[in-house]
Design goal:
Elements: H1 22-27, H2 30-33, E1 40-48, E2 54-56, E3 58-63, E4 77-82, E5 91-95, E6 107-117, E7 123-138, E8 141-143, E9 152-166, E10 177-183, E11 186-187, E12 197-198, E13 202-207, E14 215-234, E15 239-243, E16 249-260, E17 275-295, E18 311-319, E19 324-328, E20 342-350, E21 362-372, E22 382-384, E23 408-410, E24 418-428, E25 430-438, E26 447-448, E27 451-468, E28 481-490, H3 504-507, E29 511-516, E30 533-555, E31 559-564, E32 567-580, E33 587-607, E34 614-622, E35 641-645, E36 655-667, E37 678-683, E38 694-704, E39 718-725, E40 728-735, E41 737-747
Antiparallel strand pairs: 1-6, 2-5, 3-4, 4-8, 5-7, 6-7, 7-9, 9-10, 9-13, 10-14, 11-12, 13-14, 14-15, 14-16, 15-17, 16-17, 17-18, 17-19, 18-21, 19-20, 20-25, 21-24, 22-23, 24-27, 25-26, 27-28, 27-29, 28-30, 29-30, 30-31, 30-32, 31-33, 32-33, 33-34, 33-35, 34-36, 34-37, 35-36, 36-38, 36-39, ...
């Protein structure tokens, strides 16, 4: 780091000289450390005047210097934060005011270091850092090539980070440590997360271009991790943070998403009257059996399995009974009241484990951050229909479904220099058994009708390669970055002799269902009335998303836009229902398999002008990727198809199939801010005449010649070239042109 400046004061002294120092007294309270018999330590202070900053011309993370793969290709790269000595490209830490304007006070940072002895006679060491509101800003993030950047980011917040290492600091053999990370000054003193408040919410900003470019803004940002009791230490593999058995850890990550599409350079990185609210999103509540390992290793070389330099995290935890996932309207800042309505998904239920599997509700088996370059050996592909193991480079696919479903190996080799984000052995094995509508105007309008949204994810494996570009994201031909991605969300398990899904497909499966938790099953527990019910939807599903050279842009004219000439989406699973959570008496309707292959894909997301909905639009050119020479994500010889088969995994060839579908579909975006294209809207109880909240999804689609190609000209007719039943050809169908309007409304009955 260079150019560190304006470190105006720092001091070290015994705590007796600062008996009234707020940092020393508050940070090392008896509530957090037990009955302390002695308090010996120091406090280190740092001040940055209100009009100045700590800056660094460039921060570099060097990876694999001088290392090569089996082909003698260099795997050396470096991640660069900041760019040159030019101020506009630097990394900076500076004081900031709440509204993002120039600071009216200095930045004060204090670190208290204190040794103590608890009431059981064990020694300990505490580190407690606090800071008032500051901005951490990086105006460039690049990989090796400084002329290409992912964009600029800034985080405004005050906060606290504390580690109390009872029994010795970083001691792996005790479970009496405490860890606190609090951004936003969140008060979690009440066990009910609905009562948690933020006294100093943070803000985060991201843009692809220069100051004044369109921004994504996260407002009312709060992050809390409060592990009351556990282990913090270092073992032979790396850093370990693990909660004690039977203890609870509080977690909060909530934020409002805004879009600022018309700001100026002078108002860059500011939430202002041009900022349009889009969405509230967050997780909050208790978690248990938290276990994090941070490993100093990256991806692996396919020739010998050697790990490169990088960073890998392994994380898992169970959801406590008060854990919530919230989704709804973002809040306006000028109302003086929250005034936001949202859905609260809570009271999690774990999927059954009668087959003896050992797992947690939420598993992030391995998350690896590394770099890649065009031409060097990649880690290998993703097996769709098969297993994907961390550290393994598959040369083919071994089935994970007993052979009842086909397997495919999909690999997109790195095409440029960029970041690699590799996920293996992820899963979500619990669902919310209660969904509550909370009205932002009157609590009298809150609704709890005893229903559940069941979304479990059996196994997730992904390869993401992100490449910074020299564009500013303002046009489709000038993306802020591009990416190659293969993501498989799968269900493991096969079928019995009669073709019925075996039990592992339920207990380890991906399910997308709606449930009624007022219904009482035969195994109903009166002491846990929301633990069971009935559900209907897609069971034992598999989802595939693959995209080659997809551009990502962010601009006033095109919103957040994704574009590619090679995209594949596939969703398959058994439509049916039954009792939850055990699914002892399932009823199956049909096995559904939808595979979409596109040689021209465009998708855009816009905020509505008044901030009350999310608009979307785009263009899909359905195709057969097998017809594209060199395509890396080709699928079935049927290309784009839709299949409805018997509810029997041994007879999936007995189906009605619309195969080899080609043609163009447009969700128009030329008038999207005026309500054209698609819209997702949460209609609150107070704005509806019948006093009932609704979730409405509307879509206008232009088909065939009425669709407009992104480059100009009329679209191609929509053709279903083969209509089949049981493999027998029944003919074809063509739609030269047409318009389709759809509206789906979910409301209280």
């Amino acid at each position: 780091m260079k150019n560190n400046k304006w470190i105006e004061r720092s001091f070290i002294a015994a705590p007796l000289l600062w008996s009234l120092n707020a940092y020393a007294l508050e940070a090392l309270s008896e509530q957090e450390m037990g009955a302390i018999q002695g308090r010996d330590g120091v406090t280190i202070g740092l001040e940055v005047p209100q009009n100045d900053a700590i800056t660094a011309e460039q921060i570099r993370w060097e990876l694999d210097n001088g290392e090569v793969d089996a082909n003698s290709d260099s795997i050396q790269n470096h991640i660069i934060i900041g760019g040159t000595a030019i101020d506009a490209s630097q990394f900076a830490i500076k004081p900031i005011d709440l509204d993002g304007s120039e600071a009216s006070q200095a930045l004060d940072f204090a670190l208290a270091i204190d040794a103590y002895t608890n009431d059981q006679g064990r020694p300990g060491l505490g580190l407690d850092a606090t800071w008032n509101r500051m901005r951490v800003q990086a105006d460039s993030l690049s990989v090796t090539d400084e002329s290409r950047s992912f964009g600029a980011v800034a985080l405004d917040s005050g906060g606290r980070f504390a580690v109390f290492g009872d029994g010795g600091f970083a001691n792996i053999s005790t479970n009496q440590a405490r860890v606190i990370v609090n951004v936003g000054d969140i008060d979690n003193s009440d066990p009910d997360p609905n009562t948690w408040t933020m006294a100093n919410p943070g803000r985060m900003f991201y843009r692809m271009g220069p100051a004044g470019s369109t921004e994504i803004q996260l407002d009312n940002l709060g992050f809390l991790f409060d592990m009351y009791q556990g282990t913090v230490g270092v073992d032979a593999d790396g850093l370990v943070v693990r909660s004690a058995l039977g203890s609870r850890t509080d977690l909060n990550l909530t934020f409002d998403i805004f879009a600022n599409v018309a700001n100026t350079a002078s108002t860059a990185f500011q939430l202002n009257e041009q900022s349009i609210p889009m969405l509230l999103f967050g997780w909050r509540g208790g978690i248990e059996d938290f276990d994090l390992h941070l490993l100093p290793q990256g991806t692996w070389l396919p020739d010998d399995g050697t790990f490169t330099q990088g960073l890998t995290a392994s994380l898992g935890f169970n959801l406590a009974d008060n854990f919530q996932f919230v989704l709804g309207e973002a809040k306006y800042e000028d109302t003086g009241d929250q005034k936001q309505s949202y859905l609260e998904f809570t009271q999690p239920i774990s999927m059954p484990t009668t087959l003896g599997q050992t797992r947690k509700d939420v598993e992030f088996g391995y998350l690896t951050l590394d770099t890649v370059s065009a031409g060097h050996q990649s880690i290998g592909g993703i097996c769709f229909g098969g297993g994907n193991t961390y550290g393994s480079t598959p040369s083919g696919c071994t089935t994970s479904t007993g052979g009842v479903l086909p397997t495919e190996l999909l690999e997109i080799a790195p095409s440029d220099t960029g970041l690699a984000i590799i996920n293996r052995e992820w899963g979500l094995h619990a669902y919310s058994s209660r969904v509550v509508y909370r009205d932002g105007v009157s609590a009298a309008n809150n609704i709890d009708e005893g229903w559940a949204l069941i979304y479990t994810l059996g196994d997730i494996s992904t390869n993401w390669y992100l490449y910074p570009q020299s564009g500013d994201g303002s046009t489709l031909g000038s993306p802020g970055f591009s990416m190659d991605v293969v993501t498989a969300i799968q269900t493991e398990g096969g079928a019995d002799a009669n073709g019925r899904p075996d039990r592992s497909r339920w207990e380890n499966g991906t399910h997308l269902m709606i449930g009624d938790t007022d219904f009482q099953t035969s195994y109903h527990d009166p002491l846990n009335p929301t633990a069971d019910g009935l559900a209907i939807g897609l069971m034992g599903a598999d989802l595939l998303f693959a995209a080659n050279d997809m551009g990502v842009g962010l601009s006033l004219g095109d919103g957040l836009n994704l574009s590619s000439n090679e995209v594949r989406l596939q969703l398959r699973g058994m439509f049916g229902g039954g009792d939850v959570p055990r699914m002892e008496s399932p009823v199956y309707g049909s096995y559904i398999d939808i595979n979409l292959e596109m040689d021209d894909f465009l998708f855009k997301i816009f905020p509505s002008s008044n901030g009350d909905a999310i608009n979307f639009g785009g263009f899909l050119s359905l195709a057969k990727l097998n017809d594209i020479p060199g395509s890396e994500i080709t699928g079935s010889a049927d290309g784009t198809y839709i299949s409805f088969a018997e509810p029997n995994l041994n007879k999936l060839d007995v189906d009605v199939r619309l195969a080899d579908i080609v043609g163009d579909i447009e969700i128009p975006t030329n008038a999207i801010l005026a309500g054209g294209g698609g819209k997702i809207d949460l209609l609150t109880a107070t704005e509806e005449a019948d006093g009932k909240p609704k979730l409405r999804i509307e879509t206008n689609m232009n088909i065939g010649a009425l669709a407009s190609k992104p480059g100009g000209g009329a679209g191609d007719p929509l053709e279903i070239r083969r209509i089949e039943f049981g493999g027998k050809d029944l003919g074809s169908m063509i739609v030269p042109a047409g318009k389709i309007y759809t509206s789906l409304t979910l409301e209280q009955q």
